Structures are given as C-alpha cells and as structure tokens.
Amino acid sequence: MTHYESLWTDLASLAVAGASLAFLAFMLTATVK
Amino acid sequence: MGEPWRERAGVVLAPLAFAALWFAPLGLSTEAHRLAAIMGAVVVLWVTEAIPMAMTAFLGVAASVALGVAPASVAFAPFADPLIFLFVGTFMLAQAIFFHGLDRRFAFAILSLPGVGDRPWRVLVAYASVACLISMWISNTATVAMMFPIGLSLLGALESRRDGAPLPAGFATALLLANAFGASIGGMGTPVGTPPNLIGLGFIRRELGVDLPFFSWMALGVPLCAVLMGWMVFDLGRAGAPAGTRLTGVSQLVGAQRAELGPWSRGEKNSLFAFAATVFFWVLPGIVALVAGQDSPLYRSLSALLPEAVVALFGAGLLFVLPTNLRRHEFTLPWHEAVKIDWWIVFLYGGGIALGTLAFKTGLADALGSALTSLLGVRSELGLIALSTSLAALLSETTSNTAAANMVVPVVIAFARSAGIDPVLPALAATMGSSLGFMLPVSTPCNAIVYGSGRIPLTSMMRHGVLLDVAGIAAIVAVVSLLGPLVVGH
C-alpha cells in the first residue's frame, strides 16, 4: 500500500467507526424510552 | 483428544447404556423413559469422546425426535437460542484479535512493564496475569497456544544467558503451568471467557427465568479470578521462583520481540476498536443498573434492546465493514478466517441446551432431582452449592469443561427444585466448577498444550493441580454463597 492509500484506509476506518456508533445511537434514541 | 481405549470403550458402552435404561423399570412417562435411554448414551459418548461431541449432541436431539419424545420444531428450537449468536459474535471478535496478532502485542506490553524483568517471581506473576486477562475475552485454549511460544522463548533466552545467576530449578515447570492454569482461571472472569459459563447461564435463563447481566457475572467472576490467581502464583512461586533471585536478559528479549512487531497495523487498530466497543456495550446495562437502579426504565429497555448476543453480532459486524486496504477491497476479518471459529462448541451448546430443555419438559430432570434428593440428603443451599461445585470439578477433571457444564447444571437445577432450594446459586456454582479440573493433561486442552512441551513432570502437574482444584472449590463456594446473594438477588 502506498502512503496515500494507507491514509485513505485510515480515514475510511474512522468514518465507518463513527458512522456505526452514530447509527447505533440513532437506533437507541428511536427505541429507548 | 481422548485416549484410544477410552474412545473404544464409548463405542461399546453407549449402546449398552441405551439398552440398559430402555429396558429398566424406571417408573417414568414414556417420553421421559425414552429420553433417559438417549441421555444415558449421550453422557457415555460425551465422557468417552468416541465420536465428536457436537455430533453426539446432534444425534441425541435427532434420536429424541425419531423416538417421539418431542416434535422436531420443539426439539431443535434451542439451536436458535440467543446465546448461540453470542458465541458466534464473540468467537469472530477473538478470531480477528488472533488473526492480527493483537494478543501478542498486549502480552509483550505487559511483560515489558518496568520492574517485571529482573526477578523470576515477577516474571511468573506478569506472565500468568497476561494469560488470565487475555483468556477472559478469548478462548482458554487459544490463549495458552498464543502464550506458550512466548513462554518457551523467554525460557530459552534465560537459559542461554552466560552471566548472572542461574535460573532457579523448577522455574520452567512453574512458568508453563502458570500459563495453563492462568488461562483456565481467566475463563471464569467474564460470561464469554469460556463456553461452560454461557451454557450455565443459558440453563439459568431458560429454566429459571433469571437473566444474569454481563456485569453481574463479572462482579462474581473477577474476585474469583483474583483469589485463585493469588493462590496459584503463591503455590507455583514457592516451588519454582524463590524470592531473592535476580535475573538479567528478560527485558532485552521482550524489548527485541516488541520491536519486531513494528507499528500498529490498521487491522490491529480496527480489531481493538470493534472489541472495545463490544465490551463497552456489554457492560453498559450493568453500569446503568448501578447508577439508575435495576428497576429503572432505562436499564430495562437497554437490557431488552441490547442483550449480549446483539452487541456481539454488531461488534463482529464491524470487522467486516472497517477496511484494512481500500484499493484491494479488504476488511478487518476476511470471511475465510471468520469461518474458522469453533463451530463444534456452538453446536455442542445448542444440543446440550436442547437435550436439557427436553429433560425438563418430559419430567425426566425432576425425577432425577427427587431421586438424588432422597439419595444424598442435602437440604441446605450451602450444602448444595458445595456439592454442585465439587461434582462439576470432579467431572471436568476427566471430561471436557463444556460437557461437564452441559451434564451437571440441569441435574443441579432439578435437584435444587425437588429439595426445595433456590436453584440459581447452586447452578451458578456448578457452572463455575466446570472450569476447574487442573490435575491431568486430559483435564483441559490448556493442560495438554503445556504438558506437550515435555518440561512438566506429570507429578508436578498433579500436585499443583490438585491444590488449585481444592482452592478453586473453596473459592467458588465462598464467592457464590457470600457475594452471590448480593449480586444475583437470590
């Protein structure tokens, strides 16, 4: 992997991790009373 | 795993057990009587391991349908028990940690803590603690397999030193035993530490309707681990790492191994994130319960919406969306690695719960329970806790911990009911007791691996193992009977 590819992978990982937590938070706010 | 004579004995004894129970006048209903014959054969096959244990579980359930004990849809339903999915998710997370070598990085990080390297006793404590901490989250056997080469290379480096004091006699034995024992002890720390825990929890939930949260198990399991680790390190340290000896060379070796690992890879970071997020949501409902109370609406909805199995599946799911190489479209855990998880344990769990559920439905468990009550005459909760722990420990000495839990926990529940004792704590004690069994190489694969090094005399394993068994039974009885009522509320 080139430096830029690995940088993009890192960014994508962070984005996916953040989006996953946000989605979980969304599910919980919709269901938790 | 078993010896040839044992497997051969199983082939002969299983049909004999079936026939003997089939024709014996047991005074049971037709369904319960037939199930008794099936269970007799299943128990023989589990103990002798004549055929793979998961297949025995499958065949036991299939035979129950064929003999009319229960319709297929009822008999096979427990294979979809939520805890099955907790197994699958947890195993995949552990597989990712293993695949990317995160466990090795953690092990070397602990061993290079300041002050660890220069005394044999501290090396022993650090090495055993790492085994214990890792095995709380990944399988005991995988932990031992991972720590074993690290231990051997530590020993190799220490033995080839030219300067400094010689290694104390018996240090190698103590260090390797600490790996096996530490991993077995660590398994008791969390619900996902070792399969018997989930089997016991499954029976407690299905038969008694009591849901023990992740956090509550840890409130019992972690003190238990601490007590047993303390005893083990004391016992092994006395034998192989006398105080006052100094070592040189450990920190250099560990430092070199650490340097070889290089910087954190994307896969390691992703696995750590998925694992940390999973653990966070596993313990979150327990923390909410501590802060807001067990009856708070927030705790109730969190534990209903995010049971351990759901959290584990989300956590495992992260491994397939967190990228490790965007251009090649590679993610943290490739599917061909994910399918390498221990499916046999998943199926054994399903089959064990299925047969156990049938035993309760047909009334077989109750009949067995009342027979045992009149035979043994145990009337107090403390007596039954002690009996359950000892029985499970004894059985797991010769058979696998998983099979021991499958066999002992349902019997203990039925026994407690017919003796008029609350079954929750005795069942919990039996569950924990199934993880004991430290005496023989065949007691658990952890012991088998370190025994395979050829550096542990059998007498040493037996001597230290028996002491640890006894300490384990005492510690489980103490923890379950003293802390249990506070944590479980029973």
Descriptive report:
The complex is a heterodimer of chains A (33) and B (490). Chain A has 33 residues and is mainly α. Chain A has one helix at residues 3-31. The relative contact order of chain A is 0.11. Chain B is globular. Chain B has a domain at 83-338. Chain B is mainly α. The chains are: A mainly alpha (33), B mainly alpha (490). The interface between A and B is medium-sized, with 18 and 21 residues.
Number of helices of chain B: 24
Could you name the ranges of chain A where pLDDT drops below 50 across 5 or more consecutive residues?
Answer: none
The most extensive interface, with participating residues per chain, is:
A-B, 18 and 21 residues
Listing every helix as H and every strand as E from the N terminus to the C terminus, the arrangement of chain A reads H
Strand order of the largest sheet of chain B: 1-2
Oligomeric state of shown chains: heterodimer
Largest sheet of chain A: none
Beta percentage of chain B is under 5%
In percent, how helical is the residue content of chain A?
A: over 70%
Which structural class matches the secondary elements of chain A? mainly alpha
Report Rg of chain A: 14 Å
Gyration radius of chain B, rounded? 23 Å
Q: What is the percentage of strand-forming residues of chain A?
A: under 5%
Uncertain residue ranges of chain B: none
Please state the overall shape of chain B, judged from the principal axes of the Cα atoms: globular
User: Could you describe the largest sheet of chain B, including whether it forms a barrel?
Assistant: 2 strands, antiparallel
Shape of chain A: rod-shaped
Distance between the termini of chain B: 39 Å
Compile the SSE list and pairings.
The complex is a heterodimer of chains A (33) and B (490).
Chain A: H1 3-31
Chain B: H1 4-23, H2 30-48, H3 53-66, H4 72-76, H5 82-99, H6 102-111, H7 120-135, H8 140-159, H9 171-187, H10 195-208, H11 214-240, H12 250-261, H13 266-292, H14 297-305, H15 308-318, E1 323-325, E2 330-331, H16 335-338, H17 343-362, H18 364-376, H19 381-398, H20 401-418, H21 424-433, H22 445-451, H23 458-482, H24 484-488
Antiparallel strand pairs in B: 1-2
Helix pairs in contact in B: 1-2, 2-3, 2-17, 3-17, 5-13, 5-15, 6-7, 6-12, 7-8, 7-9, 7-11, 8-9, 8-22, 9-11, 9-22, 10-17, 10-20, 10-21, 11-23, 13-14, 13-15, 17-20, 18-20, 19-20, 19-21, 19-23, 20-21, 21-23
